[in-house]
Amino acid sequence: YRVLSYRSAAVDQVAYTDDAHAGLADLGHLRPGQRVSVVVRMRNAGTATWRNSGERAVTLGTDQPRDRDSAFRDGAWPAPHRAATLTEAEVPPGQIGTFRFHFRAPLRGANATEHFRPVANNTGWFAGSDVSFALRSVPIVGMAATPSGLGYWLVAGDGGVFSFGDAPFYGSAANIALAKPIVGMAATRSGRGYWLVGADGGVFSYGDAQFYGSTAGAQLNAPMVGIAASISGRGYYLVGADGGVFAFPAGDATAAPFHGSMGGQPLNKPVVGMAVHPTGGGYYLVAADGGVFAFPVANSAAAPFFGSAASMQLQKPVVGMAMHPAGTGYWLVGADGGVFTFREAGAPVDFHGSLGGTPPEVPVVGIAASRTGGGYWLVGGAETVTAFGDAGRPAESPLPAPLLPDLQRVVPPTLGPVPMLQRKAVPAAALACAPVGGRRATCVARRFQKIAGRVLLLVGSGSARRTARVKFTAKGVARIRLRTRVSSRLRGQQAALIVIRRGHKRRIVARTHIK
User: Which of 63, 296, 447, 478 is placed for a possible disulfide with 115 were both Cys, Cβ 3.0 to 4.6 Å?
Assistant: First the structure.
């Protein structure tokens, strides 16, 4: 008789951003709670036929050590230590079997290398090779809203930036070896750029955000906890946990005037945030106990003190503050999502709700006011954004960074200026591009139906940009192929599918990068 053997040989493994496989997922920079689709293919290198049912059903189990519960497991897994069941009904020797499953990043962040190996029920673990994934998720630490109030950015501790609504992505520090973690971000007045700041005071500029200086390399008494843009738009402030304030560019009283700080003075609790008065004549610091410090002290009219939560019995520490756009009040937020409103008498600075009664699983880390001041967003470390009042939560932005600054150049100037993303009923699409023959790229758009309007494909940016008119089949189908001559340097560049509709309204309906 013949002894049947179970042995596997890894063929390939791919992680995608979604089930449509529209783009590749970066497993080293996952957002807390993010779900990615994974496909693993393995060759049957043994003598036994693999089956997905019966007493010897084949599954993909956790390895090193075996049968451990995975920190990145998804709720759809057969078990915490079993990622997937074999997709095919049977896989004879020499053929390839497929395992499909999802990773979900832990809400509190994690860093692990996950190993997997096939196992047959009532038989045992397979000999041969296993597969492994290096996974990392970092909690969100800050938020900044766009000037329109129709979008926002979130930043993670590793410098990863995530764009929502009409907030374009201009870059991140996710692939930079940071001396210290990122602790906050601030948007430029135009909304076409932002700054990130690290705990060491290092500043990273993106889009139209100019670099005006930093405290990186300086001897600090306490770590930095935040950054705020100056009202002039030509500078910013850094604030430390000891209440120290650093204005940049240094010595420029018109760009970012220094109004004072708590540096060197005793604090009951560390400072956790900062807000600049809309007039630019002053700013506020807030401490973890809810204490608020208004500057300049000698001119209370420049930044009026409206009150604080220092005398309240807080359930959780205060983690941030947001200024009303009119300068007539501000909100403080606690780690449990409790919101505290302070305002001048009769001012329309209202309490719009909070999470205080139902604290989130992951603590809240910040608050941002809506454009009108009629609402605010609360953001948690797991990228959980909760909107109150008129701060309606936007959908995720499909607009990649290299495309927005040059968008005007690819459409006839007679069409007028390009507005931000329009909330119209444009079909969602999945776009994938790959180089062909070195100097061409083939792009495929799925789930995209023909609509009234002009459709363009943009590939690359700057002088290397290429555009192509999209043509549909006779049935107006949702799957299209097109080719455009591109240089080899476009590998890794962005590609976007744009719809131009009546009324000169434009929208990016899909994006990807050339692999």
Answer: 63
Residues forming a β-bridge with 497 = 457, 510
Predicted pLDDT of residue 164 = 86
Q: Which residues pair with 469 in a beta bridge?
A: 456
**Rg value, the chain, Cα:** 26
Residue partners of 398: CB distance under 8 A and separation at least 6: 496, 508, 509, 510, 511
**Main-chain dihedrals φ then ψ at residue 211, nearest 5 degrees:** -90, 120
User: For residues 214 and 172, is the Cβ–Cβ distance under 8 A?
Assistant: no
| Strand partners for 472 | none
Query: What per-residue confidence (pLDDT) applies to 442?
Result: 63
Output the six-digit token pair for 333: 């937020």
Segments of the chain with pLDDT less than 50: 393-428, 461-464, 474-482, 484-489, 502-505
The predicted-structure confidence for 207-238, as pLDDT tens digits, reads as follows: 999 999 999 989 999 999 999 999 999 999 99
The pair of structure tokens assigned to 107 is 């809400």
CB distance 467 to 498 below 8 Å? no
Q: What is the DSSP letter of 180?
A: S
Tokens of 38: 């994974």
